[in-house]
Amino acid sequence: MARRAASLVWRGLVAVCLGCQLAAPAQPVAASSAAVPLRFGILPLGGAFESRNDWEPMLADLSRGLGRPVSVLSVNSYEALEQAIQRDQVDMAFLSGKMALDAVSQRRMNVVAQVTRHDGLPGYRALLLARKTGDRTTLKDLLAQPDRWRLARGESRSVSGFIVPQLQLFLPNHIAMETRFASEVVGTHQATALAVANGEADVATNNTADFERFRLQFPAEAERLQVIWESELIPHAQIVVRRDYSPEFQKKVQAFLVDYARAKGPRGDAERAVLKSLHDLAGFLPADNTSLLPAAKLAYQLARQSAMSAQWVNESARQARLQRIESGYAEQAAALRGAAP
What we know:
The chain is of the alpha/beta class. The strands form two sheets. Strands 1-3-2-4-11-5-12 form a seven-stranded mixed sheet, with helices on both faces. Helix 12 packs antiparallel against helix 13. 41% of the residues are buried.
């Protein structure tokens, strides 16, 4: 069983080094060694190979900017990337709010930058997608009879694929996503949209950024879909670096990211083209761990909402759980601000 689990995790990881062999896992950080590759982990936005190919041009530029080889760790699931981070197999990563929050809260990573997009908005929105035709196409019908609908959603660590729809829509309507639907498919945003477009599910969680990309890659399938709900704004993803790298090295990474695609002339034009093909990014802003305070608040609100709607032996048990949630959130917020918990 252990060998089978290890095999499954390995199949979820795809490592490609830009001009080097992938470094052995869990080795001590050697920031001064130019020969040791930096391992950059990326979320599975489409398939693992697709995500890897999207990031390779920018990471090649990062390699040249830092004077170090950079390897790509592309995964098929949030869980596989989280396990790689916990095993110190990732030096830097592109993470959405919840995963970045977990990595920082576990004292493994620090935030150095936050992505920006061409629309200029400080975030994106979670979506629910349904087919344009058929008998299950409206939000009113979904909320009235969720047990008749087949759900395609993101993993529980996905902010737009699970956390925000659960918090802002389903739990307030007394619907738990994990138990109230006729069936569910769990996958990437691309996979969930395809499931509904191809008639394998009735409703899918998604987000504005990934659905824009889906429209370009799968125009025929996207034409079959409509948005039936959207959330409040969600802060953009972060770039994190392992905490045991020196502050000087973390600042060097931050400086590269902030300056990337800002130069005039051919080099800047080439870098801007790289970012546009990379999920239509506009660039990076300097950030620190306080940028995760909105993600911490979302996690706190979801935990509190879940506790309020759950069944308890008695009211004392509920109140004890709520108190633990309150104290845990206060400690986490203080740690993100750099204060003693």
